[in-house]
Write a structure and sequence with these properties.
Order of helices and strands: HHHHHEEHEEHEEHEEEEHHEEH
Number of helices: 11
Oligomer: single chain
Distance between the termini: 17 Å
Number of strands: 12
Largest sheet: 5 strands, antiparallel
Shape: elongated
Structural class: alpha+beta
Strand content: 15-25%
Length: 318
Protein backbone atom coordinates (compact mmCIF):
# COMPACT_ATOMS: atom_id res chain seq x y z
CA UNK A 1 0.00 0.00 0.00
CA UNK A 2 1.31 3.44 -0.88
CA UNK A 3 2.33 5.42 2.19
CA UNK A 4 0.22 8.58 2.23
CA UNK A 5 0.33 11.71 4.30
CA UNK A 6 -2.45 12.61 6.71
CA UNK A 7 -3.70 15.25 4.27
CA UNK A 8 -3.85 12.74 1.40
CA UNK A 9 -5.70 10.22 3.57
CA UNK A 10 -8.24 12.81 4.71
CA UNK A 11 -8.77 14.24 1.23
CA UNK A 12 -9.39 10.72 -0.08
CA UNK A 13 -12.28 10.52 2.38
CA UNK A 14 -13.94 13.36 0.50
CA UNK A 15 -13.11 16.14 2.93
CA UNK A 16 -13.35 19.52 1.25
CA UNK A 17 -10.38 21.85 1.05
CA UNK A 18 -12.09 24.24 3.43
CA UNK A 19 -12.69 21.55 6.04
CA UNK A 20 -9.11 20.31 5.66
CA UNK A 21 -7.95 23.86 6.41
CA UNK A 22 -9.93 23.81 9.66
CA UNK A 23 -8.59 20.35 10.58
CA UNK A 24 -5.01 21.33 9.84
CA UNK A 25 -5.43 24.45 11.96
CA UNK A 26 -6.62 22.33 14.91
CA UNK A 27 -3.68 19.94 14.52
CA UNK A 28 -1.29 22.89 14.34
CA UNK A 29 -2.78 24.40 17.50
CA UNK A 30 -2.44 21.11 19.39
CA UNK A 31 1.03 20.14 18.25
CA UNK A 32 2.44 23.65 17.84
CA UNK A 33 3.78 22.75 14.39
CA UNK A 34 2.73 23.59 10.83
CA UNK A 35 0.80 20.89 8.95
CA UNK A 36 1.40 22.24 5.46
CA UNK A 37 4.96 22.15 4.20
CA UNK A 38 6.32 25.69 4.33
CA UNK A 39 9.63 27.25 3.40
CA UNK A 40 11.03 28.21 6.80
CA UNK A 41 14.43 29.28 7.91
CA UNK A 42 16.33 26.81 10.14
CA UNK A 43 15.61 29.02 13.15
CA UNK A 44 11.89 29.13 12.37
CA UNK A 45 11.71 25.32 12.22
CA UNK A 46 12.45 25.12 15.96
CA UNK A 47 9.40 25.77 18.13
CA UNK A 48 9.41 28.83 20.39
CA UNK A 49 9.54 26.87 23.66
CA UNK A 50 12.36 24.63 22.44
CA UNK A 51 14.27 27.64 21.12
CA UNK A 52 13.88 29.38 24.48
CA UNK A 53 15.13 26.25 26.24
CA UNK A 54 18.18 26.04 23.99
CA UNK A 55 18.98 29.70 24.66
CA UNK A 56 19.02 29.05 28.41
CA UNK A 57 15.78 30.82 29.31
CA UNK A 58 15.16 29.92 33.00
CA UNK A 59 11.38 29.77 32.60
CA UNK A 60 11.65 27.46 29.58
CA UNK A 61 14.10 25.22 31.40
CA UNK A 62 11.79 24.98 34.42
CA UNK A 63 8.82 23.98 32.24
CA UNK A 64 10.70 21.28 30.30
CA UNK A 65 10.31 18.68 33.02
CA UNK A 66 9.17 15.77 30.86
CA UNK A 67 11.21 16.32 27.69
CA UNK A 68 14.76 17.10 28.80
CA UNK A 69 17.35 15.18 30.77
CA UNK A 70 21.08 15.53 31.50
CA UNK A 71 23.12 12.34 31.12
CA UNK A 72 26.91 12.00 31.21
CA UNK A 73 27.37 15.73 30.82
CA UNK A 74 25.05 15.91 27.79
CA UNK A 75 21.63 17.57 27.72
CA UNK A 76 19.14 15.41 25.85
CA UNK A 77 15.73 16.47 24.59
CA UNK A 78 12.78 14.37 23.45
CA UNK A 79 11.38 15.84 20.27
CA UNK A 80 8.92 15.33 17.44
CA UNK A 81 10.55 15.97 14.07
CA UNK A 82 8.21 16.53 11.12
CA UNK A 83 9.59 15.99 7.63
CA UNK A 84 8.70 16.74 4.01
CA UNK A 85 10.60 13.71 2.73
CA UNK A 86 8.96 11.52 0.09
CA UNK A 87 10.48 8.47 1.78
CA UNK A 88 7.98 6.96 4.25
CA UNK A 89 10.79 5.20 6.13
CA UNK A 90 12.63 8.52 6.68
CA UNK A 91 15.86 6.51 6.52
CA UNK A 92 18.13 9.53 5.88
CA UNK A 93 16.60 11.54 8.71
CA UNK A 94 16.76 8.58 11.09
CA UNK A 95 20.43 8.15 10.19
CA UNK A 96 21.05 11.82 10.89
CA UNK A 97 19.50 11.50 14.35
CA UNK A 98 21.77 8.54 15.13
CA UNK A 99 24.82 10.38 13.78
CA UNK A 100 23.92 13.30 16.04
CA UNK A 101 24.14 10.99 19.05
CA UNK A 102 20.41 10.44 19.49
CA UNK A 103 17.82 7.66 19.26
CA UNK A 104 14.70 7.11 17.16
CA UNK A 105 11.73 5.50 18.88
CA UNK A 106 8.87 5.88 16.44
CA UNK A 107 8.18 6.67 12.77
CA UNK A 108 4.57 7.79 12.49
CA UNK A 109 1.96 6.88 9.90
CA UNK A 110 -0.57 9.63 10.62
CA UNK A 111 2.05 12.35 10.12
CA UNK A 112 5.40 12.19 8.32
CA UNK A 113 7.68 12.44 11.31
CA UNK A 114 9.72 10.86 14.07
CA UNK A 115 9.70 10.72 17.86
CA UNK A 116 13.36 10.93 18.90
CA UNK A 117 15.90 11.82 21.55
CA UNK A 118 18.55 14.28 20.41
CA UNK A 119 21.42 16.06 22.18
CA UNK A 120 20.30 19.66 22.64
CA UNK A 121 23.46 20.91 20.95
CA UNK A 122 22.48 19.05 17.74
CA UNK A 123 18.96 20.45 17.35
CA UNK A 124 20.09 23.33 15.14
CA UNK A 125 22.10 20.96 12.94
CA UNK A 126 18.99 18.88 12.31
CA UNK A 127 16.93 22.01 11.68
CA UNK A 128 19.40 22.97 8.96
CA UNK A 129 18.36 19.89 6.96
CA UNK A 130 16.11 20.49 3.96
CA UNK A 131 13.98 17.44 4.80
CA UNK A 132 13.08 18.81 8.25
CA UNK A 133 9.91 20.90 8.47
CA UNK A 134 9.77 21.48 12.22
CA UNK A 135 11.16 20.31 15.56
CA UNK A 136 9.07 20.54 18.72
CA UNK A 137 9.42 19.11 22.23
CA UNK A 138 7.40 16.01 23.08
CA UNK A 139 5.15 18.12 25.25
CA UNK A 140 2.68 16.94 27.83
CA UNK A 141 -0.89 16.87 26.60
CA UNK A 142 -4.16 16.59 28.48
CA UNK A 143 -7.91 16.41 28.30
CA UNK A 144 -9.90 19.37 26.96
CA UNK A 145 -13.08 20.57 28.61
CA UNK A 146 -14.81 21.56 25.36
CA UNK A 147 -12.65 22.03 22.30
CA UNK A 148 -15.79 22.02 20.13
CA UNK A 149 -17.27 24.97 21.98
CA UNK A 150 -13.97 26.85 22.05
CA UNK A 151 -13.37 26.45 18.31
CA UNK A 152 -16.92 26.92 17.01
CA UNK A 153 -18.31 29.29 19.68
CA UNK A 154 -21.47 27.13 19.74
CA UNK A 155 -23.39 27.74 22.96
CA UNK A 156 -26.70 26.03 22.12
CA UNK A 157 -26.73 22.37 23.19
CA UNK A 158 -26.79 19.83 20.37
CA UNK A 159 -30.06 17.91 19.96
CA UNK A 160 -29.80 14.37 21.33
CA UNK A 161 -31.60 11.72 19.23
CA UNK A 162 -33.77 9.10 20.83
CA UNK A 163 -32.12 5.75 21.49
CA UNK A 164 -35.00 4.13 19.61
CA UNK A 165 -34.27 6.00 16.40
CA UNK A 166 -32.57 3.29 14.34
CA UNK A 167 -31.56 5.63 11.52
CA UNK A 168 -29.41 7.97 13.62
CA UNK A 169 -28.34 6.02 16.69
CA UNK A 170 -24.90 4.92 15.54
CA UNK A 171 -25.78 1.38 14.51
CA UNK A 172 -22.93 -0.10 12.48
CA UNK A 173 -20.52 2.69 13.46
CA UNK A 174 -17.43 2.39 15.64
CA UNK A 175 -16.11 5.41 17.53
CA UNK A 176 -12.53 5.50 18.83
CA UNK A 177 -11.83 7.61 21.92
CA UNK A 178 -8.25 8.74 22.59
CA UNK A 179 -8.52 9.63 26.25
CA UNK A 180 -7.96 8.36 29.80
CA UNK A 181 -9.70 5.01 29.29
CA UNK A 182 -13.36 3.95 29.39
CA UNK A 183 -15.25 2.20 32.18
CA UNK A 184 -16.72 -0.49 29.96
CA UNK A 185 -18.82 -1.96 32.78
CA UNK A 186 -20.88 1.24 33.06
CA UNK A 187 -24.59 0.66 32.25
CA UNK A 188 -24.44 3.44 29.64
CA UNK A 189 -22.30 1.16 27.47
CA UNK A 190 -24.36 -2.01 27.82
CA UNK A 191 -24.98 -3.96 24.63
CA UNK A 192 -27.09 -6.94 23.76
CA UNK A 193 -26.95 -10.06 25.93
CA UNK A 194 -25.40 -8.08 28.79
CA UNK A 195 -22.22 -7.42 26.81
CA UNK A 196 -20.45 -4.08 26.65
CA UNK A 197 -20.36 -1.99 23.49
CA UNK A 198 -16.68 -1.31 24.29
CA UNK A 199 -15.47 -3.80 21.69
CA UNK A 200 -11.74 -3.11 21.88
CA UNK A 201 -9.39 -1.49 24.38
CA UNK A 202 -5.69 -0.68 23.98
CA UNK A 203 -3.24 1.19 26.19
CA UNK A 204 -0.74 3.41 24.35
CA UNK A 205 0.67 5.29 27.33
CA UNK A 206 4.41 5.78 26.75
CA UNK A 207 4.25 3.73 23.54
CA UNK A 208 6.54 6.22 21.84
CA UNK A 209 9.23 5.24 24.34
CA UNK A 210 9.02 1.50 23.69
CA UNK A 211 12.27 -0.43 23.52
CA UNK A 212 13.13 -3.94 22.42
CA UNK A 213 13.97 -6.20 25.34
CA UNK A 214 16.82 -8.66 25.51
CA UNK A 215 14.54 -11.57 26.32
CA UNK A 216 15.32 -14.87 24.62
CA UNK A 217 11.71 -15.10 23.47
CA UNK A 218 12.16 -12.10 21.22
CA UNK A 219 9.54 -10.15 23.12
CA UNK A 220 9.72 -6.53 24.02
CA UNK A 221 8.77 -4.24 26.86
CA UNK A 222 8.19 -0.59 27.58
CA UNK A 223 10.58 1.63 29.44
CA UNK A 224 8.13 4.52 29.43
CA UNK A 225 9.21 8.09 30.03
CA UNK A 226 12.30 6.83 31.89
CA UNK A 227 13.90 5.63 28.67
CA UNK A 228 16.69 8.03 27.70
CA UNK A 229 18.96 5.53 25.93
CA UNK A 230 20.81 6.97 22.94
CA UNK A 231 22.30 5.24 19.92
CA UNK A 232 19.29 3.09 19.04
CA UNK A 233 16.64 3.07 16.32
CA UNK A 234 13.65 0.83 17.03
CA UNK A 235 11.17 2.71 14.83
CA UNK A 236 11.04 -0.10 12.27
CA UNK A 237 10.53 -2.80 14.86
CA UNK A 238 7.58 -1.02 16.43
CA UNK A 239 5.88 0.07 13.23
CA UNK A 240 2.34 -1.27 12.97
CA UNK A 241 2.15 -3.86 10.22
CA UNK A 242 5.56 -5.43 10.84
CA UNK A 243 6.25 -9.01 11.86
CA UNK A 244 5.87 -7.96 15.49
CA UNK A 245 2.33 -6.70 14.93
CA UNK A 246 0.63 -9.51 16.84
CA UNK A 247 3.05 -9.19 19.75
CA UNK A 248 2.44 -5.44 19.79
CA UNK A 249 -1.32 -5.96 19.78
CA UNK A 250 -1.04 -8.43 22.66
CA UNK A 251 1.00 -5.92 24.67
CA UNK A 252 -1.35 -3.03 23.98
CA UNK A 253 -4.61 -4.85 24.62
CA UNK A 254 -6.24 -4.89 28.01
CA UNK A 255 -9.64 -6.04 29.16
CA UNK A 256 -11.69 -3.28 30.80
CA UNK A 257 -14.06 -4.66 33.41
CA UNK A 258 -14.46 -2.01 36.10
CA UNK A 259 -14.08 1.63 37.08
CA UNK A 260 -10.35 1.03 37.38
CA UNK A 261 -10.13 1.13 33.59
CA UNK A 262 -10.60 4.89 33.79
CA UNK A 263 -9.38 6.18 37.17
CA UNK A 264 -9.53 9.76 35.92
CA UNK A 265 -13.05 9.53 34.48
CA UNK A 266 -12.69 11.89 31.53
CA UNK A 267 -12.69 9.20 28.84
CA UNK A 268 -15.82 7.61 30.27
CA UNK A 269 -17.56 11.00 30.32
CA UNK A 270 -16.63 11.80 26.71
CA UNK A 271 -17.67 8.33 25.50
CA UNK A 272 -21.01 8.73 27.31
CA UNK A 273 -21.69 12.07 25.62
CA UNK A 274 -20.96 10.56 22.22
CA UNK A 275 -22.32 7.03 22.57
CA UNK A 276 -23.87 6.49 26.00
CA UNK A 277 -27.35 5.02 26.40
CA UNK A 278 -28.92 6.44 29.55
CA UNK A 279 -32.53 5.65 28.70
CA UNK A 280 -32.74 3.39 31.77
CA UNK A 281 -32.65 6.36 34.14
CA UNK A 282 -34.31 9.71 34.78
CA UNK A 283 -33.33 12.16 33.53
CA UNK A 284 -32.35 10.40 30.33
CA UNK A 285 -28.60 10.92 29.78
CA UNK A 286 -28.47 9.29 26.36
CA UNK A 287 -25.67 10.50 24.12
CA UNK A 288 -25.62 11.29 20.41
CA UNK A 289 -25.06 7.77 19.03
CA UNK A 290 -26.26 5.35 21.74
CA UNK A 291 -25.93 2.20 19.66
CA UNK A 292 -22.43 2.75 18.30
CA UNK A 293 -19.54 0.40 19.04
CA UNK A 294 -16.84 1.95 21.23
CA UNK A 295 -13.08 1.60 20.89
CA UNK A 296 -11.06 2.63 23.95
CA UNK A 297 -7.60 4.00 23.07
CA UNK A 298 -5.91 5.08 26.30
CA UNK A 299 -3.33 7.86 25.86
CA UNK A 300 -3.82 9.79 29.14
CA UNK A 301 -2.84 8.70 32.64
CA UNK A 302 -4.72 8.61 35.95
CA UNK A 303 -4.40 12.39 36.22
CA UNK A 304 -5.57 13.15 32.69
CA UNK A 305 -2.14 13.80 31.18
CA UNK A 306 0.00 12.12 28.56
CA UNK A 307 2.47 12.99 25.82
CA UNK A 308 1.85 14.17 22.27
CA UNK A 309 3.90 11.21 20.99
CA UNK A 310 1.39 8.77 22.48
CA UNK A 311 -1.57 10.65 21.01
CA UNK A 312 0.02 10.36 17.56
CA UNK A 313 0.70 6.67 18.15
CA UNK A 314 -2.96 6.30 19.11
CA UNK A 315 -4.03 7.92 15.83
CA UNK A 316 -1.67 5.52 14.02
CA UNK A 317 -3.28 2.54 15.77
CA UNK A 318 -6.79 3.70 14.89
Amino acid sequence: MKHRTLRERVMNLGLSAARWSVLSLLISLELGVPVHAQVLSPAEKISADLSAFLSGNPSAIASATNWQRSANGTTLVKVLILSNSSDPTLSNLRGAVLSAGGSVFYNYISVRGLMAIVPAAQIQTLANRSDVVSITPNRLTGRTASLLQTVTAITTPLTTPSSSSSSVNGTGVGIAFLDSGIMSAHPNFAGTLATSRVVRAVNLLNFGDSVVSASSTGGFGQAGAKNWTVGMDVSGQFALGTSLTQSIETLLSYFPTSFKDDPYGHGTHVASVAAGNGSYQTPNSTGTAPNASIIDVRVLDDNGYGEVSDVLAGIDWV
